[in-house]
Predict the structure.
Amino acid sequence: MKKKIQTFETVAPGGASENGALVDVLALGAHPDDVEIAMGGTLLALRAQGAKVVVCHLTDGEPTPYGNHKIRLKEAAAAARVLRLDDYLILPLKNRELMDTLPARRKVAEVMRRYRPAMVFAPYWVDAHPDHWGASELVQAARFWAKLVKTDMKGEPWYPPKFYYHLCSHLRPNVQPSFIVDTTLYHDRKLAAVRCYESQFIKKPGSRALEHINVMNRYFGAMIGTQTGEPFFSKENLGVKDPRMFV
C-alpha cells in the first residue's frame, strides 16, 4: 500500500511576509522523533514568540521493533500537538534507504517551495546512522533545487535564506556549536513531546534515551549559563547587528 503524506494542512497559502517567506521555520528530520529530540525546545520557544513553524519528517521511521506505520503516524501527530506546530508532514520516502536521489530531492524541494521558509534546519552532517547523514545531504541539495526555474516542480521558486543544522546523533561527537538556544522555559514540554513516541522510548526495554536527552540539554545549557540548551551549527559565518543580543 502506498504511504500517503500525513499533514495538519493548517498553514494557509498566501500571506507572505515582506521577504516572501510564508513560514519562519521548516525543520526536517530523517524520522519522526529526530526533530523533537534535536530542537523541540527551540521550536516551542519560537512558537511562544509568534513564529510560524513547520516540521517535515522525511520517512515514517518504520520498521522498528515496537512500532508500525499507523503507530508512528499517531505518535507524530501527538508530538506535533504538544509542540503547537502550525503544520507537519511525513513524506513517503523509505526508511533505511534515505539518500539524496533525484526523486527524493524533488519531493523535499517542493516542500520548501510550498512553505517558503525563512529558516531551514537539517540534520547534522556527521552521524553513524546512514539515514541521518543522507537526510543532511538531501536537504542541502533540495534547498538549491527549490530555487530552480524552468522546471515542472510544484510551487514557485524559493531559496531559504537561512540554513542551519540540528543535532540528533547516533555518535557521541565532540562538537563546537555555532550557537546554542536557551530552552530552559520549554525543556519539560520538549520532553513531553519526545514521550509521545512511546514505541521508541517508553515500550523499548532498557531505553535511556530520555535520560540522555536531559543530560545533553543540560550540558549545552551549562555552556551558556542556562539550565538547558540546544546546539545548532552553520557552515557559514553568522553576523549580528547588536552584540547585546547574546545570552
About this structure: Residues 7 and 89 are 4 Å apart (CA to CA). The beta strands are 6-7, 23-29, 53-59, 87-93, 117-123, 162-166, 179-182, 229-233.
